[in-house]
Design goal:
Two copies of one chain form a homodimer. The first copy, chain A, is α+β, with helices and mostly antiparallel strands and about 400 residues long. In chain A, about 45% of the residues lie in helices and about 20% in strands. Chains A, B: Belongs to the GHMP kinase family. Mevalonate kinase subfamily.
Chain lengths: ~400, ~400
Amino acid sequence: MPSYFTSSPGKVILFGEHAVVYGKVATAGSLGLRSYSLVQTRTDRAIGVSLPDVQLTRTWAMNDIPRQARWEGYPYPPPMNEALLEQLAKIVNLGTQTNRSQAAIALMYLHSHLTTDEIADKGYDFSVRSNLPVGAGLGSSASYSVCVATALLKLNGHLAVGMDAIAQRDLVNQWSFQAEKVIHGNPSGIDNTVSTFGGAVMFKKGEKIEPLPGFQSLRFLLTNTRVPRETQVQVANVRKLWEKFPTVVNPMLDAINEISASCKDLFSQQGLERAHLLTQFGELVDVNHGLLAALGVSHPSLEKVREISSKLGLKSKLTGAGGGGCALTLIRDDVSTETVAVVKQLLEAEGFNCMETSVGGPGAGILTLNGPTSITEFLSHEKAYFEQGLDWKYFV
Amino acid sequence: MPSYFTSSPGKVILFGEHAVVYGKVATAGSLGLRSYSLVQTRTDRAIGVSLPDVQLTRTWAMNDIPRQARWEGYPYPPPMNEALLEQLAKIVNLGTQTNRSQAAIALMYLHSHLTTDEIADKGYDFSVRSNLPVGAGLGSSASYSVCVATALLKLNGHLAVGMDAIAQRDLVNQWSFQAEKVIHGNPSGIDNTVSTFGGAVMFKKGEKIEPLPGFQSLRFLLTNTRVPRETQVQVANVRKLWEKFPTVVNPMLDAINEISASCKDLFSQQGLERAHLLTQFGELVDVNHGLLAALGVSHPSLEKVREISSKLGLKSKLTGAGGGGCALTLIRDDVSTETVAVVKQLLEAEGFNCMETSVGGPGAGILTLNGPTSITEFLSHEKAYFEQGLDWKYFV
């Protein structure tokens, strides 16, 4: 009975949010908060789906889900099949535009293309759990998509043993991008790329996403202000300011562009001590937040995070669209556990939600089952399983 | 017995502090807080000086102060006479580098050049009071210098009736710049220019100071955080950031430059409703503060001013070097008296000092004495004297 755990990280934008809309470079990194999936074959030609994070537990008969004939370029994805999507939406029948409906349709869309006769003959159970808050700009849907893609590709033998790692992650990335398209319509591809590859990337609208060479994993306190993000409102507000004062806003966007470039320079400097690197990275964090605040996308809750963390000598910035949502606080290596605890306590006293995490860790991975038999059991020992050396295979 | 009241405003930087160090345009305006001086002849060939704001009350014998022979270009100032300065410092004998010593030396330096035989034969009393806090970046020394220059020029007949207003203010400006040089060593000339001319000006290092055409007087709440400014420290910090990340900081300075340019555009737009003008001016205030904060020159106290005022829909920015000092909060015409009172109360509860004032009002002026007989008497009815139409003669 083949069964695999797959795992993939969320993402955070480190630098360049908003400016990226205007063709500037942005930098994103994989987040230590991850999603985990378990896929295992059944014997009754059914597909059991368990997504407790979106309150979905359901089983479909294998025969109810159409499967695609092989196409040119198989197993790489063909162009989006809109007719199939509509068909699947009807079959899945979970309403429209809800997270769980989109999640189920995305799964079925990949299933429809990737499931081999051998697996179709058996059926399988698929479950996902995530440590990522939904809708917080942390790439939870991409992380889900990468888990789905990795799980179905692996289960159906498309990630054959001995297959080149680059080819494996490329295949996962392409399919997770399909899943993202099902969920979002017109995703940028950043989130699934970061979730697949891990580390950090630099990207520019319409250009290839580039890994950030030499990026070192960094510790952060991630604070969810619990103030709902309003991405479209924030994007529109920046647009209005840009339309009113283009000569002022354009150089601000240029400055943000150069923050990503300076970040790249930092990590490519040979022999730069990590302590110095972290100090300078913190200064870039500070300046980027200032520029975002100057663009009008901060929020009193985000300024509160800055106020509290700066009192203890820590640098913070909003991440994502702003106007609420999350902030990142850099934890330099020399910051004591006590200091982190104090900051956390002060932030939580404001009603915020804090998680110590890292940015720049590994991307998607697979663990051939050995021990835990369910996602719930796995998650109850996540730290031990994940960090203490089970044989995760990352596509890196 | 000729006697004259003179009056001159302080200044605030509206936009462009710090960026001006890097050759960018800045905008400054005259402040509604003013200094007042009274000069009146005596009969005993003495000079009585009363500067209660710096605890100075003293009388010098006319014969103790050297007077300069006429020079080429009289009555426009000759090059600084360093030997005379040293001589005056000894005669004044109030120690070195204190505000009151510098103020007295500046007065005597102008006296030495401008006093005619006729006035020297009589002597005079000179007193100054100021509503401007000293050392808060509000141009108190320039305002003092302009009062001194105006008073001595007027008393000695250098501002003859019928003299062209442009020539009068030019003469006052040149002599007040001399006084500023005595006090500061190497002043920029902005402060005395704003104090002399009133309104608002734009300026760039090494270039001519230009009046901002069409500038309309604006209401502000001026908040002194009482956190001491550390101008040199802030300037050095920006320099460090600029040296570390020139490609990031340069476009930020460009953006600040364009804020002054956009401000100029606003006031030159024909038919722009004042309400719209004020809204857009407020946005520039917001963006400029953000950029200053991004440069690292804000302070928790200044952010507190922003937090409190923004809760009531008002836009604030630091003014001057930052790291403490003062903040300006724009009071749009539609803001109610109650709102202003609430903001003031909240700010004062933080230990800050608030003053409702305006920016862009008249510059230096003279009132031929008619009613009050001392500065103290005058100041006790300042509002009435100043606002209710005594016949101030401004050089505009």
